[in-house]
Amino acid sequence: MQNNPSESTSLAIVLAAGKGTRMKSELPKVLVPVAGRPMIRYVIDALNGAGIDRILVVVGYRSDLVRAELASEPNVEFVEQKEQLGTGHAVMMCRDQLAQHRGPVLIVAGDSPLLQVDSVRKLLENFSASECDCVIGTVDKEDPHGYGRIVRDDSGRFMGIVEEKDATSDQQGIREVNVSTYVFDSHQLVAALEQLTDKNAQGEYYITDCPAAMLAVGKNVAAEKVLQPCESMSINNTDELALVEAELQRMAPVK
C-alpha cells in the first residue's frame, strides 16, 4: 500500500539543541547569524514553503533564546532536550507527539540554512509514492570527507550509512553522502527509536542508526538523490560560515 499524505497533517522535527562552540559564539548554534539572519530562520522558511503543517523544534542549550526567536511562528512547537545525548535522543524527546501522529515525519538539522523548498517537497513526494518506511535524502559530494557514506548493493538498493571513521578504503571513495535529512513513517520511527543504544565511542544515541534498525527487521528503506549540492554545505566553523554566506548571496534573486 502506498503512503497517503492526505491521511494526516505533515510533521517536521528540527534538531536545534546544540551549542555553537566551534562558531566562537555563546549563542545556540541555530541562532548564529548567516547573512544577517539566524540560520534556523532559513530552515523554518523552507519547511513553511514546502507546506509543512506542524514543526517541532527540539531545543536545549539556551532554549529561551530559540523560543523567543520563533515565538511568532504559529505552527512551531518546542520540545526540550535537557541533556544533549545525540540526534536520536533529540528525536526520542518527541515520542509523545510521534505517537499521536499518523503519516510522514520529516527530520532536518536546524543548522542547515541552505535547505531548499523543492528538496523537501521531492523527498515527501518520493516517500508518498513509495512503499518505504524511511526515505533518506542524499547528494553526491565532490569532496565527501567528514560525511557518512551511502552504501548500496550491486543492484543499487540501499544497504546502510557508514560513518567515515568506520568506512573501508573502498567505502571512503563513495561520493553519495548523508546530510541528515530524512522522512520516516511515524509508527516505524517510534519502533526504531526503541532499538537505539548509546553503545558507541561518544555514548550517544544517533538518528543515523534508525534506518539500519529498520532494515534489520525487514522494513523498506530507500536513499534518494533529491537534494541539491548546496544542501551538503555544513557550518562547523567561521570559514564554513563564510562559504555558506557566499552561496546564499550567489543564489539570491537578482533585483
Automatic annotation (TrEMBL):
<dbReference type="InterPro" id="IPR029044">
    <property type="entry name" value="Nucleotide-diphossugar_trans"/>
</dbReference>
<comment type="similarity">
    <text>In the C-terminal section; belongs to the transferase hexapeptide repeat family.</text>
</comment>
<dbReference type="Pfam" id="PF12804">
    <property type="entry name" value="NTP_transf_3"/>
</dbReference>
<protein>
    <submittedName>
        <fullName>Bifunctional protein GlmU</fullName>
    </submittedName>
</protein>
<dbReference type="InterPro" id="IPR025877">
    <property type="entry name" value="MobA-like_NTP_Trfase"/>
</dbReference>
<keyword id="KW-0808">Transferase</keyword>
<comment type="similarity">
    <text>In the N-terminal section; belongs to the N-acetylglucosamine-1-phosphate uridyltransferase family.</text>
</comment>
<feature type="domain" description="MobA-like NTP transferase">
    <location>
        <begin position="12"/>
        <end position="153"/>
    </location>
</feature>
<keyword id="KW-0012">Acyltransferase</keyword>
<dbReference type="GO" id="GO:0019134">
    <property type="term" value="F:glucosamine-1-phosphate N-acetyltransferase activity"/>
</dbReference>
<comment type="function">
    <text>Catalyzes the last two sequential reactions in the de novo biosynthetic pathway for UDP-N-acetylglucosamine (UDP-GlcNAc). The C-terminal domain catalyzes the transfer of acetyl group from acetyl coenzyme A to glucosamine-1-phosphate (GlcN-1-P) to produce N-acetylglucosamine-1-phosphate (GlcNAc-1-P), which is converted into UDP-GlcNAc by the transfer of uridine 5-monophosphate (from uridine 5-triphosphate), a reaction catalyzed by the N-terminal domain.</text>
</comment>
<keyword id="KW-0548">Nucleotidyltransferase</keyword>
<dbReference type="InterPro" id="IPR050065">
    <property type="entry name" value="GlmU-like"/>
</dbReference>
<dbReference type="GO" id="GO:0003977">
    <property type="term" value="F:UDP-N-acetylglucosamine diphosphorylase activity"/>
</dbReference>
